[in-house]
Amino acid sequence: MADYITNVLNILRLLKPEPNHTGFQHLHRWVGEPFSEALAARMCAYVLENAEGAEAVIRGSGVPAESAEGLCQTTGGLRTAFSPAGINGSIGGPLPTLVSSIALFATFAGSQARPSDPPKEALDLVVEVEAMIAKLGAARLDPLVHEIAIRHLRVLVILLKNVQAFGVDSATVAYSELIVRLRRAVHASGPDTEKKMRGVWPTLKTWWSRLEALDNEFRSGWVFVC
């Protein structure tokens, strides 16, 4: 449950460089090009899930009421900034004091806070996933298989690039969805696509152990970085 706190802390850090941008502009920056509204909606859902989870942790933590109120004002502002009604407004409205909000969450997170940059292991895996996107993009696969593979691989890339904010759990879920949905699509495709995918599965399977190792690193307790 404490993951929600460090996730929100690092989401706030992602927002800090552009405090006057809209929630939608931040989503666009995270998703990159080519922009996909479906991917943006998914990232928005991750922000809202972590904000709501962090608020539940705060309410049940037993911290003094004044501290809890300040923390929950921030989670409430985050939910407003990425809500359907607020997504096109400046995040500076619901989150007017990002610097102090970051400091407050950093104090609450304590020694378990994560660094503000993704670890090398995550970035190394990003390189492999992006190489797989390029490989499958040029493989002339069945259209449905191609669409499912590229979409879910792009989700995995986004989450790994921002793993310090959204957590390894989100990346692991995205990986699992990729494998399950891709297997179904390949099974329903023709023999040509099945043949082309035979050389892909071994690489995809290695990513599970990589994600497990990354999760262990996160849970081992990193040095606090403010």
Secondary-structure-based class equals mainly alpha
Rg computed from alpha carbons, rounded to a whole number of angstroms: 19 Å
Largest sheet: none
pLDDT averaged over residues: 89
* Number of E-state strands: 0
β-sheet strand percentage: under 5%
Low-confidence stretches: 222-226
Q: What does the overall shape look like?
A: elongated
What is the oligomer described by this structure?
Answer: single chain
Percent in helix: over 70%
Strand and helix order = HHHHHHHHHH
Structure overview:
The chain is mainly alpha-helical. The chain is built from ten helices and no strands. It has two domains: 111 residues; 100 residues. It is elongated. The C terminus is likely disordered.
Topology (elements, then pairings):
Elements (H helix, E strand, L loop, with lengths): L1 H14 L7 H9 L5 H23 L5 H17 L16 H12 L10 H18 L5 H19 L1 H26 L2 H7 L3 H19 L7
Helix pairs in contact: 1-3, 1-5, 1-8, 2-3, 3-4, 6-7, 7-8, 8-10
